[in-house]
Amino acid sequence: MEAEEIPMNELDLAIMELGKVSDNKTKLSFIRALIKGELWFMTKMVPEHDGQTMTISDGMPNPFLEMETPKSNGRFVPIYSSRERLEESMKALKVEDEPVGLGLMDARIMLTGMGAMKLRPIVNKRCKTGDVELPHQLLIDIGNGKF
Q1: 35-73, pLDDT tens digit by residue?
Q2: 76, 133 contact by CB (below 8 A)
Q3: SS3 string of 17-60?
Q4: Would you call 102 helix, strand, or coil by DSSP?
Q5: CB atoms within 10 A of CB 28
Q6: 136 sits in which H/E element
Q7: Do 116 and 107 form a contact (C-beta atoms < 8 A)?
Q8: Are 12 and 30 in contact (CB under 8 A)?
Q9: What is the pLDDT of residues 69-118, one digit of tens each?
Q10: Taking the complete model, does pTM exceed 0.85, yes or no?
Q11: Nearest alpha-carbon partner for 82 in 15, 3, 138, 12
């Protein structure tokens, strides 16, 4: 039986378009889709119960799961356009059996925090949509309100 197809959201479509065309208009459309709404992530902080809220505050350890693969050229933080994309990636990255928590956060807050922590986020790592590494300067620009 074939796996069920994951519905495409606005960010998924923008990632796919960016994989085909990288002009300024396409990049701007991707950024607009990226910062709208919320993004999913994995965390080492595994909640005791489903639905438990995790609070992130200044000075706390990095809550985002950092990964490294043989082809990743260093450590990165995978973030996702949807829970379905996160689950797709977990299978591809073989993290299904590891104890990880799943989180959802406002995109602007997440990306601003990642910029401040000098993390290297990759959107939809190993997903059918393709993936996009976010440059550090983009994170800074989002945090400064440029977008």
Answers
A1: 999 999 998 876 565 556 666 666 777 889 999 888 888
A2: yes
A3: HHHHCCCHHHHHHHHHHHHCCEEEEEECCCCCCCCCCCCCCCCC
A4: strand
A5: 12
A6: helix 136-143
A7: no
A8: no
A9: 888 889 999 999 999 999 999 999 888 667 788 889 999 999 999 999 99
A10: yes
A11: 12
Residues in the chain: 147
- The residue behind tokens 């989180």 is 103
Domain spans in the chain, listed from the N-terminal domain onward = 10-143
CATH architecture of 10-143: 3-Layer(aba) Sandwich (3.40)
CA gap 107, 124 in Å, rounded? 14
User: CA nearest 122: which of 83, 84, 86?
Assistant: 86
CA separation for the pair 64, 26 (Å, rounded): 28
Contacts of 99 (CB under 8 A, 6+ apart): 46
